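Below is a typical protein record.
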Amino acid sequence: MSDQAKDFDDEIDLAELLGTLWRGKVIIILAALVAAFLGIAYAKFVAVPTYTSSTTLAIKKSGASVIDIQSVVSGVSSESDSLNTEVEVLKSRDLLERLSATLDLANDPEFNAAIRPKPMFSISGLLGGDDDAPTAQQITNAIAEKLREKISTSVQRSTYIISISATTESPQKSREIANTLAQLYLDDQIRVKFETLEDAVTWLSARVVELEAELQDRDDDLKAKTAEADYINAEGLLVLSQQVRDLRERLIGEQTDSDRAAAKFVEMKAIVASGDIDAILTFTQDPGLRRLASQGTREQSLAPDSPFQARVASLVERAEKDVTRARTQVSAINETIAAMEVRVDEQATMLANLQQLQRELDTTSVLYDTFLTRLKETTFQQGIQQSDGRVLSTAIDGKKVSPRSSMIAALSLILGLMGGAGFVLLREMRANGFRNAEVLQAATGLQVIGQIPLFPVAARGDLIQYLKDKPTSPAVEAVRNLRTSILLSNVDKPPKVIMSTSTIPGEGKTTQAISLVQNLSGMGKKVLLIEGDIRRRTLDEYFSIEAGEHGLLSVISGEVTLDDAVIKSERIGADVLMGQVSHVNAADVFSSDKFIAFLRLARDIYDYIIIDTPPVLVVPDARVIGQHCDAIIYTVKWDSTTKVQVLAALRELAAVNMKPTGLVLSQVDPKGMKKYGYGEAYGAYSSYGGGYYDA
């Protein structure tokens, strides 16, 4: 495939696309008009009109504390979530069921399908649907769901205003539903508040009674405990604690004195044991002992029964008593401190218990006073409850919102335009054939040398008469142009032997061959038409003559001469050599030297030889015959033969080094040219020879 053909395949030609839409403008406009007409008819005669009516509510902003009793009875929160919650409350099943009961919607066919007249035709009836009558609860549920569909609620931005809209088949009904729902919502707020207050009063009353009893019990317990510890108070406990601290300070001094006396006693005993009179005198500093020491000698003083020794023993005994007395004093103080600490601990524990009882009593008293106050406030609020909102504007008779004829007509027109354009493009996409010479030439890379219109004949036998009777018709003129293109295809060596072939049967190659023969003979040339398609043989249908006993095969085999075998047709002014049925393979016949010799003889006798061969994709005959021809006319049927088929056949020819002199776009329908846009689509090919051999 050439680069030009590849570019043709891969690119989308916008001008081609727009051209296709433009050429299909009639279909597109008709589709748009039909769609617009149907849309208007639907809006006027089929669609049920609906009406919308709206009412608005202003919601009070709440800012009260949670512990304040006003939190029970004040407006809703200013948070957007709270407003959205109120919007959902408006469409709650409870409110919708009450709305249905208030307006008796169970007897309204718009909301209760059970009371509507049964249609003559229904899908559920065909499918054997359940014909049992719905229960009352099912009807109620269905009405609530229907109301939910027909009611819309919204919060106006940056406000505390809720809009309620109802859309029904009646303007009055829409108004009643919107206003009634708003009033039911406000009444429901008051009802909820009364129920909340009632629950609060009940709970507060029970709690006040409990707190009163608890307060009394705690007061009695505190009094009993206080009576048991009448002498205990914080001041006395403080004095007692101070006494303990004083005793501890005294204990420290006594302990110090005791330790000092014990140390002195130990030291005295050591000095006395040493027998050093001077040391004893220095340590004891006793005047009497000094006087006794001065009355005698050292030895006398140290004698066991001397007065000196008696005095020393007396001093040692006195020191020992001082130690014993000091230790006794320390022990007594320790016992006193221990006893006083136990007493302080006991009194501190008892005082703490009394203080805890007092705190609990005070707390219970505060709770009791608080709940009692709330109970009184709540009881008072029961008589002055109001809703959290008010009706800002009541609904009026609904305005018609559907069907909007102008919008439906516009949308239908647009859909019609889209549908028409889609149909035109789809038809174009599904097209498998070639619709103009440019596309054919771009796809194959070969020159298109002729475009032959569809001959307006009813049967093949009428073709020759038409060529004679209508020499100036568009089809004959097109054949004349084809003749010129063929003859001028090689100016230096004009072609004499011309082969006419195609891709598959039914493309008009035989018509082109006969028309070309008639045109060339009209120029005074001696022309021979050879039926190279000896398998199927179709020339009999074009000529109202009886084929002779001999034909092409007889001439090739040498059984008869060419002049004896040809039929001189005065209708086209040329000789016709019919084909013959052969048991020998046709390709072998045309590959023989005898066929080459036959063509050489025919060249000497005739000015032009036109050979009508079988289609390329059906049998190999055309590829064999074409080797001996000067020019090849390759016929492609307009808007029929697919690109894949044509390219496959051209590849078959190229495989044997054959290239068509030119392509002919045949059987072009002038009306179809106006009807279709130019384009191309791809398709597979198969069964080319189907029915080809049928005589």
Observations:
- DSSP finds 26 helices and 15 strands in the chain.
- The domain at 433-675 is CATH 3.40.50.300 (Rossmann fold).
- The first helix runs from residue 3 to 10.
- The first strand starts at residue 50 and ends at 59.
